[in-house]
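Good morning C.,

I know you're traveling, so I'll keep this short. The sequence:
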Amino acid sequence: MRSIITLALAAVTVSGFAQYNSGNLAVSIVGDGGTTNGNMAVSIRQYTTAGAQVGSDLSLVGLAGGRNITTTYGETSEANLSLSGDGRYFMIAGYDLGVRDASFSTISSNRAVARIDLAGNIDVGDDFKPANGDGIRNVWSNDGSDYLITGGDMGLLRGNFPSDPTQVVPAEISTRTVKGYKNGFIFNGSNAFQGGNGFSFFDGTNVTELFATPGGASARDFVVVDPNTLYLATSTAGVGLVKMVFDGTNWVEAYRLTGTGISGVAYDGTSVYATNSNGITLLSTIDTGSGFGAWNTLATAATNTRFRGVEVVPEPGTMIALGAGLAALVARRRRK
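The C-alpha cells, ready to paste straight into the viewer:
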C-alpha cells in the first residue's frame, strides 16, 4: 500500500476570521422557509457552541456567474459540510440549478463543488455531470484544491478545483462521506462493507473493507478523532452516535448514544456536535471516556428549513492538518 497522506500533527496558521469566529459552529442549512418541492437553497449559518446564532446566513445560490449550490430537501446525506484538512476552507457540493428548477433531477442535473474561506468568500468550481450514479453528497479536500466527492451509487470522484472530477472508485459502490485518514481515506456507504452499511479504506488505488456499521445502521457522517478513534453519526435512532476504536487489529464499538438518529457530526476536542436526522435540531453531548452524556438541544430549525452538516471553526494557529492531501495522488497519476 503506497503512501498518499501521512497523518501529521502539524499546526497550521489560519487567518481571515472576519466571517467565521474560531470555536463557533458552521452549519449548512437546507431550504428557505418556502415550499419544499424540488431542489432547495443551501446556506451556511454560524452558531456559538451555546446555540446563539451569529450574524446572517451565507447564501450559496445566485453566486457570481449565476452559479448555485442547491440540494434535495429530504436526502439527509446531501449538503454535508466538511472542513479542509488544512483548516482553510469549508467544502460543500450540490446541484448547479436555481431554486425549485423544474428540470431538477438527482441523476441528470449538473453538480458543482464550492469552497468557502473563513472570511466568507465563496468559489464555485466548474459544473459537471457524473457518468454514473445519482445524488451529490459530500466533498473532502486537504487544502481546497484537489478533492474527493461522494454521491449515491457514484463511487468516488476525484477533482482538481475548479476542473471536472474523474472516477477513481467504481460507481457500483455507494458512498456518503469521505475523510482523510493516515495514508489514504475512509469512506462509508450502504454497500461499503460486504454489501451492507459500513466503512472502507481507499489508498488512492485500492479499496479495503474495514467494518460494518454497528447494528446494521445507516451511517451518514463521521469524525476522525485520531488514528484509533472515530465518531459515527447514524440515522438509526436505536444506534445513534457511536464511538469506534481500533484495537490494533480490528475496529470495535466502544459505546453509543441512542434515542436520536443523527446526520452531521463534529468535534472540538471537548464536545460532540450533531444535527439530528430529520434536520430539526442542532445538538451537543460530551464523551466522558466511558460513555456519552445526554443530548443537549442548542437550536431548532425554522419551518421548512433543515440543519444538515456541522463543522467547528478552527482556532488560528492550532488547526491539526491531516496530511499532505490529494496532491500526492495527483502527482503520482501525472507521473504515470
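Safe travels,
E.
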